[in-house]
Specification:
single chain; about 425 residues; alpha/beta; Rossmann fold; 7-stranded mixed β-sheet; 6-stranded parallel β-sheet
Length: about 425
């Protein structure tokens, strides 16, 4: 296997976090793959890549793999799961428990990371990136800084970029005010420097081709390569034995407008008014995002939803897999997605899925789940009622693991090298 040069700027910047985002996990899997190829790692400087000391890069990747990708529940996560299940069954008050929790203090991991981040860089002459070594960038990080990638000139033709979505460009109403312009610049960087673009779905690939066409540009070669499923979700079997007395549903992801949490919160308010304490519980697994004041106010102040909606912001993969495997269904009412990782993960555990009928979900689900218009409140209510009254067990979805993902990638890179030759 030929070595590659991989940009791990995001991992360095996110190394103090106890749990990863989807993009964090994605870049970590690529870093593990690259390390197995005896590759070398870089961070983007102002106008060129900066080589990362091999030992320190290996140490960072190993540490993050242990912290983020473990399949066994840590004592802390086990305790939190027990508290969640107890809250679902009304044995404890989740609101009171969270209120009594001490505010988070900077951890030793964070303090070490912030202090030592710069020392990961090898401020020694490292020589240019080998001309035949493909440069791989998978996180969107720094792509809005064109000068940082100016060294990737047309002679190299070996920039490999993974594009996760074009949502800030195609749906600017769902993101921060400055994000559309920044993402536009990211995609311009990809069009200028990519010899190969990897996309997570046909939906994303179509958006990228349209983006190039609108600018009179020719899109680079594009390959569809969906993410692999983390081991935690593939190894968790849905036993059919309920973990709680009360049924519960789960929505996974950052609490941001495009995820459409407001639909579920208004629906849950109606369910509680109709059914009282016998209404199912809703578990929201994800951190709070941006420009979502109404949702945050509803979560914080709506009396009907107190202890009926459980907000959890920091679950690791093993805990999330356990939570999903006992749920009546995963709910995914998003207005738009580049892929839809929680849907794929739920299907891997055998958990039923109720999702919006958007193109990216259809690619993953096919006819194996309930698909509804994200604005069809009555349809969502009927589907949730059906899953509440009838606990449906489904077989696990035949999902691709990361080994399969990288086997395809190895073939793509080998073909790309032969084409250049």
């Amino acid at each position: 296997m030929n070595a590659i040069a991989m940009d791990i700027s995001r991992l360095i910047g996110r190394s103090h976090y106890s749990t990863p985002t989807g993009i964090d996990r994605f870049e970590l899997q690529y870093a593990l793959w690259a390390r197995a190829r005896s590759s070398f790692f870089v961070e983007m400087g102002r106008n060129k890549p900066i080589a990362i000391d091999e030992g320190r890069a290996t140490g960072l990747i190993t540490d993050l793999s242990k912290r983020w990708s473990g399949t066994a529940l840590s004592p802390k996560q086990s305790m939190e799961l027990e508290q969640i299940y107890a809250a679902i069954d009304g044995k404890i008050s989740w609101c009171d428990l969270k209120r009594a929790s001490a505010p988070a203090q900077p951890t030793k991991i964070k303090q070490w990371s912030l202090a030592a981040g710069k020392s990961l860089r090898a401020w020694l002459p490292a020589g240019p990136v080998e001309r035949n070594a493909p440069f791989v960038h998978v996180s969107h990080t720094n792509l809005d800084r064109p000068a940082a990638f100016s060294w990737l000139d047309s002679r190299r033709r070996s920039g490999v970029f993974y594009v996760h979505d074009l949502i800030p460009v195609t749906h600017p109403e769902f993101v921060r005010k400055r994000e559309p312009q920044r993402h536009l610049q990211r995609m311009e960087t990809v069009l200028r420097h990519a010899g190969l673009v990897l996309c997570n779905s046909q939906t994303t690939a179509r958006s990228l081709r349209s983006f190039a066409e609108d600018r009179g540009r020719e899109a680079p070669p594009i390959a569809i390569l969906p993410p692999g499923i983390e081991s935690s979700f593939r190894q968790t079997n849905r036993s059919g034995v309920t973990r709680t007395k009360n049924p519960y549903f789960v929505i996974v992801g950052t609490i941001e407008p495009r995820k459409n949490h407001i639909l579920l919160l208004q629906l849950w308010r109606w369910l509680v008014e109709r059914d009282g304490d016998s209404a199912p519980r809703l578990v929201i697994a994800g951190k709070r995002g941006w420009e979502n004041a109404q949702v945050f106010a509803t979560l914080d102040r709506c009396p009907q939803l107190r202890d009926m909606v459980i907000e959890v912001s920091d679950l690791g993969d093993a805990a999330l897999a356990d939570l999903l495997s006992g749920a009546a269904a995963l709910l995914a009412p998003s207005f738009v997605e580049g892929y839809g990782m929680p849907v794929a993960e739920a299907m891997a555990t055998g958990t039923p899925v109720i999702a919006s009928d958007i193109p990216s979900h259809k690619e993953i689900i096919g006819d194996q789940a309930t698909l509804l218009d994200p604005c069809d409140g009555l349809g969502w209510r009927a589907a949730i009622d059906a899953h509440t009254s009838e606990y449906r067990s489904k077989s696990q979805h035949a999902s691709q693991d990361w080994n399969g993902h990288f086997q395809v990638l190895d073939e793509l890179l080998e073909n790309a090298v032969q084409t250049v030759r």
